[in-house]
Amino acid sequence: MKAFVVDKYSKKGILRLAEMPEPVLQDNDVLVEIHAAGLNPLDSKIRDGEFKLILPYHPPFVLGHDVAGTVVRVGSKVRKYKPGDEIYSRPRDGRIGGLAEYIAIHEADVALKPKNLTMEEAASIPLVGLTAWQVLVETANLNKGQKVFIQAGSGGVGMFAIQLAKHLGATVATTASAAGADLLKALGADIIVDYRKDDFEKVLSGYDVVLNSQDAKTLEKSLTVLKPGGKLISISGPPDPEFAKAQGLNLMLRLVLRFLSRGIRAKARRRGVSYSFLFMCAQGDQLSKITSLIESGVIRPVADRIFPFEATNEALAYVETGRAKGKVIIKIG
User: Fold this and answer.
1) Rounded to a whole number, what is the largest CA-CA distance in the chain?
2) What are the Enoyl reductase (ER) domain coordinates in residue numbering (predicted)?
3) What's the pTM?
4) Domain ranges across the chain
């Protein structure tokens, strides 16, 4: 099969289009013919080697965290899916590989594709949808009447999280340029801070939850908009000791991550709020709940551009510009 491969960790390295063996199907796997794949900033970070200590892949490996396609074969223990099913998934860490013609995925990581979405639209959902769900529903337990600040509303996670938070009944604030304001209002944002003109920490206050996706400086500023008891949840780091424990990292790495996060954790404690790091995980059952929201019209996908499979390197470079409004998709089959 054709696949785009990382031959070595390299910042802004070029993926190689290669002929690779078809994935080996394990007992609990479904073999999927991929029709479309989503790209994410995480793909660049994996290729660059930013996570190689906590997510070690051994080159050459196939990149790609979002897939939509058709089941062509199932393992002997699979009960939920059959050949011909149209599915979408964020394959679990250690088994990524969406930038290929085929992928084997554990059935627990899979959900039926929303009936009202194309394959390309469906491929835009899994990683950002699960990230937003795990931040707002699983970690923050966001409730009706609460206030949430979602940074970078025009990004893939931001656009999904705004819609989900609004569905949960929260007041939603976000940051964006003036050019993106109308779209974000249509998605459900109540307050839009123009980051080119205003400092969000001077505009917002009394928030229950902050979803941080930006740099360390922005992370620290985010503490100031929370009310006592509020929750600062970061998807861009630094990882905290709880994450290290959940990942089963060795003692040395646990100590390193404890050191890296001690500053923000201490500042959070002094302000009477909590800090946690979330690295989303594959979860087919949660993705099925997201499917229901999409099919009912509560959430809609927002795609920026669709690239042909052969232009995957150009598409990844476009993601790295940070200018995409929504998701960047690769059309494969």
Assistant:
1) 58
2) 13-330
3) 0.97
4) 2-125+302-331, 128-277
Its CATH class, for the domain covering 2-125+302-331, is: alpha beta
**Class of CATH domain 128-277:** alpha beta
Alpha helix positions (H), 135-211: 156-167, 181-187, 200-203
Ordered per-residue pLDDT tens for the chain, 333 residues: 999 999 999 999 999 999 999 999 999 999 999 999 999 999 999 999 998 888 889 999 999 999 999 999 999 999 999 999 999 999 999 999 999 999 999 999 999 999 999 999 999 999 999 999 999 999 999 999 999 999 999 999 999 999 999 999 999 999 999 989 999 999 999 999 999 999 999 999 999 999 999 999 999 999 999 999 999 999 998 999 999 888 888 999 999 999 999 999 999 999 999 999 999 999 999 999 999 999 999 999 999 999 999 999 999 999 999 888 899 999 997
Amino acid at residue number 249: L
**Helical (H) or strand (E) element with 84:** none
CA distance linking residue 76 with residue 127, whole number of Å: 27
Q: What distance in Å separates the CA atoms of residue 123 and residue 88, rounded to the nearest whole number?
A: 7
Q: Categorise residue 319: left if φ over 0, alpha if ψ from -120 to 50, beta otherwise.
A: alpha
